[in-house]
């Protein structure tokens, strides 16, 4: 039963990540942003804050939607990020948005494992 629960959690995480990236690929806006803060959280991972101008020219400061074990960017450095103009809460580095095209295959494999484990448990 523990294996089924674990696989369901993995499947939910994969689907959430895939939907987020798909949304950014579909309607995201790419802008140049400056790293203004790198904060070490309680889990030992860094939160990266970027500052950029949105499509309306307003200055926006947002934390990237991913946490890093090692900061991928120096303070004051610039990078291309993609954000959703309808929901500016979780921008990502542009290179991260384009990666992850393997997700549908992985989602399919984990879904198959969920079905096989469920069948072995309940039949």
What does this structure look like?
By secondary structure, this protein is of the alpha+beta class. Helix content is 41%, strand content 32%. A 5-stranded antiparallel sheet has the order 3-2-1-4-5. It starts with a helix and ends with a helix. The model has no long low-confidence stretch (mean pLDDT 83).
Task: Write down the secondary-structure element order.
Answer: HEEEEEHH
Class by alpha and beta content: alpha+beta
Shape: elongated
**Main sheet overview:** 5 strands, antiparallel
Strand content: 25-35%
**How many distinct beta strands?**
5
Q: Would you tell me the overall average pLDDT? A: 83
Cα-based radius of gyration, to the nearest Å: 18 Å
> What percent of residues adopt helix (DSSP H or I)?
40-55%
Distance between the termini: 13 Å
Number of helices: 3
Which residue ranges are poorly predicted, with pLDDT under 50 across at least 5 consecutive positions?
Answer: none
Give me the side-by-side strand order of the main sheet. Answer: 3-2-1-4-5
Task: Write the SSE topology.
Layout: H1 2-27, E1 29-40, E2 46-53, E3 59-63, E4 78-84, E5 87-93, H2 94-98, H3 103-122
Antiparallel strand pairs: 1-2, 1-4, 2-3, 4-5
Helix pairs in contact: 1-3
Short description:
With 123 residues, this protein is α+β, with helices and mostly antiparallel strands. It has three helices and five strands.
